[in-house]
Design goal:
The structure is a single chain. By secondary structure, the chain is mainly alpha-helical. The chain folds into two domains: 113 residues, 434 Repressor (Amino-terminal Domain) (Orthogonal Bundle), CATH 1.10.260.40; 36 residues, no CATH class. A two-stranded antiparallel sheet has the order 1-2. Helix 1 packs across helix 6 and helix 3 packs across helix 4. The radius of gyration is 21 Å and the shape is globular. The N and C termini lie far apart (44 Å).
Length: 160
């Protein structure tokens, strides 16, 4: 682990800290993403307001990192205005620690559909004990297949 992740992970041992961090991180990340995507597209707050059917003052509030009043409906409207997908999911704290320890504004930039390249189909495999998916690798597949076969054999014996 990097020093930044290690330090954060140590603080995460406190449930109160984790909850406070996630709440703050959510609002500041959403604000930074909206502002970054808007700047990437050379848009003003008024431009984004017009595209999303909101007032400029609402866009200003959404770009405030201290804003805690986020609704899924509002975020869907912003996503539609930027022509990007909105994904909301539950993740382990380790994923939050990894993501938040990354630096740079590039993590906040999201290309609109028209600026994307078609995705390359890579089979994904779940990492053991996590909800993280990683690109398929032959050596990982051999291990996974062997472990699966062993599990099936063991399970079959136990059932008979």
């Amino acid at each position: 682990m990097t020093t930044r992740i290690t330090a954060l992970w140590t603080k995460f041992k406190s449930r109160k800290y984790r909850e406070s961090f996630v709440e703050s991180h959510l609002s500041s990340t959403v604000a930074a993403q909206i502002q970054t995507m808007r700047h990437d597209r050379s848009m003003t707050q008024a431009d984004l307001a017009a595209l999303s059917g909101m007032k400029q003052s609402r866009i200003s509030v959404l770009e405030d990192p201290d804003n805690k009043s986020l609704s899924i409906a509002t975020l869907r409207r912003i996503a539609a205005a930027f022509d990007v997908a909105l994904v909301i999911r539950f993740v382990p704290f380790s994923a939050v620690a990894r993501w938040s320890s990354e630096t740079g504004n590039s993590k906040f930039s999201v290309a609109s559909f028209s600026d994307e390249r078609a995705p390359v189909a890579l089979p994904l495999v779940a990492s053991a004990g996590t909800s993280d998916y990683r690109p398929y690798r032959a050596e990982a597949a051999v291990t996974t297949v062997a472990a699966t076969r062993k599990f099936i054999r063991t399970s079959d014996r136990a059932m008979h």
